[in-house]
What does this fold into?
Amino acid sequence: VPDRLHRAVMEAVLGYPVRLVFAEKPLATTLEDAGALVSLAGKRNIPVIVNYSRRFVTEISRLKQDIADNAYGAFIAGSGLYGKGILHNGTHLLDLLAYLLGPITGARELCRMHDFYDDDPTVSAVLQIGNRGMFTVQGIDCSKYTVFEADLLFEQARIRLTDSCFTLEEYRVRESERFSGYKNLRLTRTIATDMNRAMLNAVEHIHQVLSRGVSLRCSAADAYAVMQTALGLGVGGQAWLGS
It folds into this structure.
C-alpha cells in the first residue's frame, strides 16, 4: 500500500494473532507513526521484518561478514547515489550503510530537490558512520534515470556496489606499474549478486525465523533508526546530528 497507509494497515494486521509481519519500507512516514508500530509489535510480541531488500542479498551479507572480520582493513570513506526521495528510496542507501558499517551517528545536508514527491525531498548530505569515517550521499533527479550505487573505501580495498547492487566489484591495493613507490587500486573481482532473488531470500529468512528462531535480518527497530536519519535530513533543515 502507499507509504502514508503503512501505519493504519499494520495496526490492523497486528490486531490478529499473526506469527510475523513482513512490512514494506519505509515503516511509516513519520517517526511518531513508526514508533507507535514498534511499540505495538513489541506489546503483541509479534516480530516485524522490514523489506530493505539488500539485506537479503547473499553477497551483501557475505560482504558484511568480511567487513566485520577486518578483511579489508578499516573503513576510510565512501559515496553513493540515489533518487526519488530521502525517505522512500534514500533509506535503502542509509540502511545499507547501517547494515554494513554500523549506525549513522551524524549528518549534514548539502542540498535538496523535489524530483518525485512534494513532501519527500531527495537530499544530498555528508554522513558520519560511527567513529569509522564519512560517507557522501548524492541525490540524483529520478526523472532523468534511476541510479543506486555505493562506493566504499577501506585501508586495503575498495568495494563498489553498482547497478542497484546487482553487481559487486572488489579492488585491491597493488604496487603501481607506472610509478615506483606508489600504490593503486586494481579490480580483482566482479561478482553478479543474487539481488534478483532478494524477495525469495527474504521468504527463506522468514521461514528460518519461524522454524529455528534466528535473529531478524531487518527489524522494525532497524527501520525506525534509519528513518531517524532520513527524516532528520528531509525535515530538519541544514544540519542534524545523531546521538
User: Anything to note?
Assistant: The longest helix spans residues 220-235. The two ends are 32 Å apart (CA to CA). The chain has six helices and eleven strands. Helices lie at 6-13, 31-44, 58-68, 90-101, 198-212, 220-235.
